[in-house]
Amino acid sequence: MNELPWIEIISALAVLAGGGGIAGLLVARRRRRAEDQEQAERTAEREAVAEPAVTAEPEATAAPVEAPDLMVEPGPLLEPIEKPAPTAGRLVRLRERLARSGSPLGARLLSVLSRDTLTEDDWDEIEEELLLADVGAGPTTELLDALRTKVRVLGVREPAAVRNLLRSELVALLQPELDRTLHTEPTAGEADAHLPAVILVVGVNGTGKTTTVGKLARVLVADGRSVVLGAADTFRAAAADQLTTWGNRVGVPTVRSDREGADPASVAFEAVARGRDEKIDVVLVDTAGRLQNKAGLMDELGKIVRVASKVAAPSEVLLVLDATTGQNGLSQARVFAEVAGVTGIVLTKLDGTAKGGIVVQVQRELGVPVKLVGLGEGPDDLAPFDVGDFVDGILG
Ligand SMILES: Nc1nc2c(ncn2[C@@H]2O[C@H](COP(=O)(O)OP(=O)(O)OP(=O)(O)O)[C@@H](O)[C@H]2O)c(=O)[nH]1
Questions:
Q1: What is the pTM for the complete model shown?
Q2: Which regions span the lipid bilayer (predicted)?
């Protein structure tokens, strides 16, 4: 009798006996051999796509992709899979969330505009409110001019008319014409190969990237999409655990490395390759928080984009900005846009601030639309951005 059936019998015994003793060892050795072979195949594939040696780019970014000791957390085996809430109407919750964090910008503007007669001091107050809410100097002047003209020249005074006027001016300021579609469709590569949509999530520390990836996975699952998560935040060990937990809750596997500091580009590559091999619709890649002024980290981000693109170029690079940090978000956005080609903004923690004007500035400066907003720490507190609903939310 050849070796294999014996191993099968011993394996079965091992499973029955809880995997202990010689049988357990054989099973472990056999599993290790299979893993080694799989690892060798992946390494060969990685080497085949390694960057050419001659390149004009900085040394750090041209390094070959190193093997990251990858693991795939398969999704839940024991826990029941959660059913995420539908996404429609989520932004409507904004109003109640904002009410908790103080009077929203729109409501404050409305209260000044509704005064019987508007003095220069009142207009100064409106200007101050807009600037304090991070709307930015240019857009503030534009809005003030439009309001002054319509209130004074056209004599708009009746409360409902003032509200309508302010609403339509705020809507115009938020560029409703921008395309806010999240591109999550797989595409066909060479020889009709399946290429997953790849969404890369970037930003500075603590803005809510991992949480956003987790929430977004739920949104996609709710929409019937297959998803793989890539834990390319290899600096913070807890980040991969955090992401795996999010994935497990909705039955989505996470590609991760169990080695802290492993090459994040490699993890991203593996996640995208897995998405391709298993014909997954969307691969969501979480990256480590980085300061926009740390050249090395930003180079590394560029490398993640390039290496993942060897399999499939990102269909979206989402920059996560914390709405409570305001103005600083703008300089972050500029640098990330340069390095990673940002295609959309996710504005998190909107529930924790009465500001929100940064939406206006970021969109103006970069021509990149806000596509999603974070409305709380709950698993389904992520909403597609809709200009009309947003303005209604801040008008209170
Ligand atoms: N209130 C509120 N909290 C949020 C929102 N999004 C994320 N958070 C919280 O922000 C904190 C940081 O979130 P993470 O997802 O860990 O942030 P990160 O950007 O991945 O962090 P690093 O990996 O350290 O860069 C967590 O406590 C989240 O619950 C939101 O929309 N509203």
A1: 0.80
A2: 6-28
